Amino acid sequence: MYCCTKINDDIIWIGINDRKTERFENYIPLDNGVTYNSYLIMDEKICIVDGVEEGENGNFLSKIEAMIGNSPVDYIIVNHVEPDHSGSIKNMLKIYPELKVVGNAKTIMMLKLLGLDLPDERVVIVKEKDILDLGKHKLTFYLMPMVHWPESMATYDITDKVLFSNDAFGSFGALDGAIFDDEVNTDFFTDEMRRYYSNIVGKFGAPVNAILKKLSSVEISCICPSHGLIWRKYIKEIIERYQKWANMEPTKEGVVIVYGSMYGNTAEMAEILGRELGNRGIKDVIIYDSSKTDHSYIFSTIWKYKGLMLGSCAHNNDIYPKMEPLLHKLENYGLKNRYLGIFGNMMWSGGGVKRIKEFANTLTGLEQVGEPIEIKGHVTSAERDRLIELANLMADKLIANRK
Ligand code: FEO
């Protein structure tokens, strides 16, 4: 028997745990896997909300069959066209000749752009707050453009007050046991939710705020996202967390120090900064070697903390190659509301600190702490004192923020 789990009397989780795909969107590591959540609503009309990635089709279709036997599926609601949710539709259309694809006008246009043969008679186009009547369950729709693509929307079951939020409130990580937030230790998933949010949706704070505003007057008993845990106990808490993230507000005191270093001198600068921050009582200091830790994790940690310190050696008159993609992504996402410290090593040419200064000038929402410290080679005693001073300026800022 395939693993399916009841959300309530009529709604069944028929999602897939994918532990074999290496990278999400072919660049973000899935060290702990990912789920493609899909939900079956058993009613006079049988409806599936969100599909799965094409490679997982086999088990997915078997799960549907295990639940409904030879009955037809009437609707597949496509909240989001990205192939991790729509890859299964092509086969579903073949297997279920009565099946209709439900989406907004952009959904249908984008499914066709991705090569799906979708004749008009197999399409139901919905608009904001239209009702899809399944019998007992009445479903309605909230458009949420850019959370994560232009066509993204959420489906709301008016009958049971269940929100199918698609990418919103989703997290990386396979569901290794229970599927509900009140049945597991949520620490892992809140970290993986932040990694998902910051890397996938983080650029689109204004659209996230818009959908949070729309949903603020909607009673929600359960949030069923398209990735990760299903939320029924900590709904208020995750919505509050989303509000902070949407405004790029850090959620915790602490400093992320990221450096690029070839021979250890810039790394030693980071160590001195970190040690002094610790001496000043900053309990969360996280130091990353940009060469070693995947940027999706660094990015996620930056999203959490108020302090950021960036350092680089010089490489061919420029920044260290592993630092550049991180800076580029932070610029692209428009990071703000952070204190920034800058340090690095110029040797004979410089270039690393110069690039970080350009970064600081580009992102006007960052507050630079102290002056950039750029040394030549090994850290001298005088330079060590300057680094300690910079760390203290950062600590002063953070401590002044304590309520
Ligand atoms: Fe889960 Fe934007 O795809």
Automatic annotation (TrEMBL):
Task: Give one GO molecular function term.
Answer: metal ion binding
Q: Which SMART domains match?
A: Lactamase_B
Cofactor(s) for this protein?
Answer: Fe cation
Annotated Pfam families: Flavodoxin_1 (PF00258), ODP (PF19583)
Domain Flavodoxin-like, first and last residues per copy: 255-395
Q: Which domain of life is it from?
A: Bacteria
Q: Which InterPro entries match?
A: Flavodoxin/NO_synth (IPR008254), Flavodoxin_CS (IPR001226), Flavoprotein-like_sf (IPR029039), Metallo-B-lactamas (IPR001279), NADH_oxidoreductase_modular (IPR051285), ODP_dom (IPR045761), RibonucZ/Hydroxyglut_hydro (IPR036866), Rubredoxin-O_OxRdtase (IPR016440)
Classification via PANTHER family: DIFLAVIN FLAVOPROTEIN A 2-RELATED (PTHR32145)
The UniProt similarity line reads:
In the N-terminal section; belongs to the zinc metallo-hydrolase group 3 family.
Q: What is this protein called?
A: Flavodoxin
| Organism from which the protein derives | Fusobacterium nucleatum subsp. nucleatum
Q: What is the lineage of its organism?
A: Bacteria, Fusobacteriati, Fusobacteriota, Fusobacteriia, Fusobacteriales
